[in-house]
Fold this protein.
Amino acid sequence: MDTNTILYIVGGVVLGLILGYIIAKSLEKGKASKLIANAESESKSILKQAKADAEALKKDKILQAKEKFIELKAEHEKVILSRDKKMAEAEKRIRDKESQVSNELSKAKKSNQSLDDKIKDYDFRLEFLEKKKDEIEKAHKSQIKQLEVISQLSAEEAKEQLVESLKEEAKTDAMAYVQDRIEEAKMTAQQEAKKIIINTIQRIGTEEAVDNCVSVFNIESDDVKGRIIGREGRNIRAIEAATGVEIIVDDTPEAIILSCFDSVRREIARLSLHKLVTDGRIHPARIEEVVKKTTKQIEQEIIEVGKRTVIDLGIHGLHPELIKMVGRMKYRSSYGQNLLQHSREVAKLCGVMAAELGLNPKLAKRAGLLHDIGKVPSSETDVETPHAILGMQWAEKHGEKPEVCNAIGAHHDEIEMTTLLSPIIQVCDAISGARPGARRQVLDSYIQRLKDLEDVAFGFTGVKKAYAIQAGRELRVIVESEKVSDEKAASLSFEISQKIQTDMTYPGQVKVTVIRETRAVNIAK
């Protein structure tokens, strides 16, 4: 292909491109004009629609605004009406108050006027009375002078003579009246006292319980007796040494007898035996452990018994130590009569009798319950002090009222009675002890002799425990091995026997056995 041809082809192509560009521009221009026209028409329609919507929204908002205005206007009118009503009511009340005040002022003016008139009238009458009083005094003085001239006595002398004559006459009348009252009281006092005592006794009825010195421990079979006795009697000796109770194992079927004058020891021994037999392990070490636990259990039971007693009797605010002493009464006796039951009965009798006489029954119950607390002394207390005085001292120590303390101390006439409560306690104590079958004089003296026998042993140095057993025919003394040697134990036995022989009166013989035990205890860890 030659050059000219190529140039023609190139020129034709360029020309075609130019023509195509011109045609494309013309077509694009036509489309743009159409798009502009369409956009203008569409914008006009949108504006027209927007105007229509704006008009509708404007009308709606105007309508809402009118409704809101009408609503606010109605509420405002209600508030204004309410205020107007309140103002009208306030104005009415003010007008009523003003009229009431004006009426009160007019009444006050009238009252003041009337009071002024009365004051003037009283002043006039007072002045008139003063004048009359002066005139009467002058007339009285002149009459006295005339009487003195006639009787030849002055006014003071005549007054003294009149007073003396009246004194003598009054004294005679008073003596006659007193004598009549005394005779009447003598005739009725004994009858009234008997009536009160009979009514009191009839309203209180209690069971009589006389303490014994022997308890029977029942067992299931006689095979248990051998286990209680132990090999060569080791177990039974350990029980007797730990509790101070004599254990009698005889031919009585299915029973073991516990003998001791101290009911606390006897109860500890009974409960310990019950635990040992139930558990099945009976040997000296186990026996000592059970006896210690049982002793603590009895101490806790004593406190519970004291609490139940004061609650049953309606006594409040009693000191814990006094409550504990009341609980100990359960295991003490007075002439064979259970001390707690006796004290409860006395408390009830005192409450009834105090009510009959118009006194405080609660205070009387309190004094009646505590009147014999001196009979349950601790080991540190001086047992030679009369129980009434000892009980009074304890009551004073623990904050009881003076009336209660005096009633406790005076119920056996150790001190003077200073309140009406004291003779009531004395009488009720006598009533409780005088019931048929309530007391045994012999049993109490027997128990006291056994206690005295133990006290003789405690008077020597190194004595740890002392138990009177076999109805006082034997005294077992357990000593501390650190303080008492084997040689001293032998001499101590002789000294105690000589002391008993010298100081005590007793039938038959008393065997003194001194027990000294040495233990070596170590713990393997």
The first helix runs from residue 3 to 151. DSSP finds 14 helices and eight strands in the chain.
